């Protein structure tokens, strides 16, 4: 059995995420309290009491990262299993870098708060949009986006799984492309409730500013194989990380390609760590032969313990 931990991205958040663990695990509570000390806002209040701020990108990103890191540590403590590879969807890639020890928990929290602020400020509200396209292959989506771009931009932003691609760009261009994609046979085109056209060149200013922040980070050697959204491949060397995280803000997320590469490299069991089950759903649609779990609360942790706990895994 080769186990990968994969980490939630933005959009998976919900009020009260991690609360069951916070109330039942001393170590989980310590990790969240540590995280609370590293950021410039009351993280615990945002997680458990303030849904409005939880859904603002600047607060969303450190909140998801904090909960995901704390759950990752809890899985290792309670189930006595460790990942042999890691990856994360967009924001989740920072959690993967914490797990692989390339980045400290403290550094990651501060970085993603800055990242979230830059991403939300670069494109004013109402200018950009994103929409999920269901039921078309990537070539058709790419062709339509190219056709509908001109003075305004619309491009594929997330290759999530077969038959689901997210497009993003200027609001009017996304609307034009959405209509054209329905004419091309898309089953659905669903507008997403997000604050900006993430993973497009409209975020270049945020990408450039983030690169200046990343220049001061001393990344450590990766201790386990870590895969990146930017090209869907394993990060070969620590020297690549800074450039990949810079590009990641304005580059498409190749999640489907990444999962296929991990499977090709021997991963047969995926554990989605953090809020939500989106990644589990994507992975099951990408390859039904692999085993997929998610851990976000006591019930899902108990299921993982039952299936993969130390006493139940064949040596």
Task: Write up this protein.
This protein has 315 residues and is an alpha/beta fold. It folds into two domains: 3-122 and 202-308, Malonyl-Coenzyme A Acyl Carrier Protein, domain 2 (3-Layer(aba) Sandwich), CATH 3.40.366; 128-194, Malonyl-CoA ACP transacylase, ACP-binding (Alpha-Beta Plaits, 2-Layer Sandwich). It contains 14 helices and eight strands. It has helices spanning 19-24, 26-38, 43-48, 51-54, 57-79, 92-99, 105-122, 138-148, 171-183, 204-214, 241-248, 255-264, 278-286, 298-308; strands spanning 3-7, 85-88, 128-134, 154-161, 164-170, 188-191, 269-273, 291-295. The strands form two sheets. A four-stranded parallel β-sheet has the order 2-1-7-8, with helices on both faces. Strands 4-5-3-6 form a four-stranded antiparallel β-sheet. Helix 7 (105-122) packs antiparallel against helix 10 (204-214) and helix 10 (204-214) packs antiparallel against helix 11. It is globular. The N and C termini lie close together (9 Å). Residues 311-315 have low confidence and may be disordered.
Draw up the topology in text:
Layout: E1 3-7, H1 19-24, H2 26-38, H3 43-48, H4 51-54, H5 57-79, E2 85-88, H6 92-99, H7 105-122, E3 128-134, H8 138-148, E4 154-161, E5 164-170, H9 171-183, E6 188-191, H10 204-214, H11 241-248, H12 255-264, E7 269-273, H13 278-286, E8 291-295, H14 298-308
Parallel strand pairs: 1-2, 1-7, 7-8
Antiparallel strand pairs: 3-5, 3-6, 4-5
Helix pairs in contact: 2-5, 5-6, 5-7, 7-10, 8-9, 10-11
Strand fraction equals 5-15%
Which regions have little confidence, pLDDT < 50, spanning 5+ residues? 311-315
Calculate the terminal CA-CA distance, rounded to whole Å: 9 Å
Percent helix among the residues?
Answer: 40-55%
Order of strands, main sheet, comes to 2-1-7-8
The CATH architecture of the largest domain can be given as 3-Layer(aba) Sandwich
CATH homologous group name of the largest domain: Malonyl-Coenzyme A Acyl Carrier Protein, domain 2
Tell me the number of helical segments per DSSP (H or I, 4 or more residues long).
14
Mean pLDDT reading: 95
Structural category is alpha/beta
What is the succession of H and E elements?
EHHHHHEHHEHEEHEHHHEHEH
How would you sum up the major sheet?
4 strands, parallel
Number of domains: 2
CATH topology-level name of the largest domain: Malonyl-Coenzyme A Acyl Carrier Protein, domain 2
The total of beta strands comes to 8
Rg, nearest Å: 19 Å
What is the highest CATH level, the class of the largest domain?
A: Alpha Beta
Overall 3D shape:
globular
Family: Belongs to the fabD family.
EC number: 2.3.1.39
GO molecular function, one term: [acyl-carrier-protein] S-malonyltransferase activity
Enzyme class: transferase
């Amino acid at each position: 059995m080769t186990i990968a931990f994969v980490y939630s991205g933005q959009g998976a958040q919900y009020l009260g995420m991690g609360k069951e663990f916070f109330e039942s695990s001393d170590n989980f509570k310590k990790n969240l309290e540590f995280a609370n000390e590293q950021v410039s806002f009351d993280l615990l209040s945002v997680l458990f009491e303030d849904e409005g701020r939880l859904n603002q990108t600047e607060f969303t990103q450190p909140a998801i990262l904090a909960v995901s890191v704390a759950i990752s540590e809890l899985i290792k403590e309670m189930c006595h299993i460790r990942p042999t590879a890691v990856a994360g969807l967009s924001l989740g890639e920072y959690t993967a870098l914490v797990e692989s020890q390339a980045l400290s928990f403290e550094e990651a929290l501060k970085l993603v708060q800055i990242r979230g602020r830059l991403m939300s400020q670069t494109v004013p509200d109402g200018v950009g949009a994103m929409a999920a396209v269901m039921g078309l292959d990537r070539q058709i989506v790419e062709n339509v986006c190219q056709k509908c771009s001109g003075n305004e931009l619309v491009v594929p932003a997330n290759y999530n799984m077969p038959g689901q691609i997210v497009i993003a760009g200027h609001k009017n261009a996304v609307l034009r492309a959405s209509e054209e994609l329905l004419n091309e046979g898309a089953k659905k085109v669903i507008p997403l409730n997000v604050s900006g056209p993430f993973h497009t060149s409209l975020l270049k200013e945020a990408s450039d500013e983030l690169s200046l922040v990343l220049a001061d980070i001393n990344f450590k050697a990766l201790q386990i194989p870590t895969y990146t959204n930017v090209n869907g491949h394993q990060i070969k060397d620590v020297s690549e990380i800074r450039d990949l995280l810079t590009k990641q803000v304005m580059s498409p997320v190749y999640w489907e390609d990444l999962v296929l590469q991990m499977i090709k490299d021997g991963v047969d069991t995926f554990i989605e760590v953090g809020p939500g089950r989106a990644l589990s759903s994507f992975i099951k649609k990408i390859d039904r032969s692999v085993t997929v779990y998610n851990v976000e609360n006591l019930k899902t942790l108990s299921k993982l313990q039952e299936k993969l706990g130390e006493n139940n895994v064949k040596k």
